[in-house]
Amino acid sequence: MKYRRLGKTELKVSVVSCGTTPLGNEYRQIDISAGIRALHLALDLGVNFIDTSPYYDRTKSELVLGQGLAQIDRNRYYLATKVGRYDLDEFDFSADRVTRSIDKSLQRLKVGYLDLIQCHDNEFGNLDQVVNETIPALQKAKQVCAQVSTHCRRQGGDLAELGMQFSLANPNIHSTLMGTANPDNVRKNIDCLTSTYDVDLLAEVQEMLKPIHNRTWISGRPENT
């Protein structure tokens, strides 16, 4: 496989990449297991860039892709999805919808982060809104998370480990779920039982996360949220 730098990013992507529209039965009904095998084969042959969207068969592509990537080391691929288009005639490029869309895509794909987020078919939207609302919302989410992660690394810490240590040290949290299918991560999480978090680093991280603290997608009945 050959690799090239993607635009102005630092991503070195395979010259053949994986489009996942077919995984959502967008064009025809497929055998899901065959589709996942095709994904795994592509990765084994050196493909490292995967593109999807919540629009593809109205979230099914992301759901199936999440199944297919569940046992794959996250460091083996770059993952791109989109915001803005959700159905044939449903477009929403507002900052609020974009933020919720990212969170829901992360859930469906079963990953902790995305490498690339694109505005989907923005020619159908208001370009002023895309420029002045959609893109700033994407940049804010990326900036805050990237700053926190980078800060942790520079201080010799790991953000995921810090979060686990914090939860385990809180007696009001009776049990902390570790969402992983990676044996190495299981060991790392269990090891957090015998280690303590850096109090100063935690305080710094909490301060940096204030702009997005307690922000989540809205679901359920309005009176219950």
Question: What features would you describe in this structure?
Answer:
The structure is a single chain. This protein is an alpha/beta fold and 225 residues long. The protein has two domains: 3-146, TIM Barrel, CATH 3.20.20; 153-224, no CATH class. It is built from seven helices and eight strands, in the order E-E-E-H-E-H-E-E-E-H-E-H-H-H-H. A four-stranded parallel sheet has the order 3-4-5-8, covered by helices on one side. It has a two-stranded antiparallel ribbon with strand order 1-2. It has a two-stranded antiparallel ribbon with strand order 6-7. Strand 4, helix 2 (60-69) and strand 5 form a beta-alpha-beta unit. Helix 1 crosses helix 2 and helix 3 packs across helix 4. The longest helix has 28 residues, at 127-154. The radius of gyration is 19 Å and the shape is globular. The model has no long low-confidence stretch (mean pLDDT 83).
Distinct helical segment count = 7
Strand content: 5-15%
Spatial extent as radius of gyration = 19 Å
- By CATH reckoning, the class of the largest domain would read Alpha Beta
CATH superfamily of the largest domain: NADP-dependent oxidoreductase domain
CATH architecture of the largest domain: Alpha-Beta Barrel
Form type: globular
As laid out across the biggest beta sheet, the strand order is: 3-4-5-8
Number of strands: 8
For the residues shown, what is the average pLDDT?
A: 83
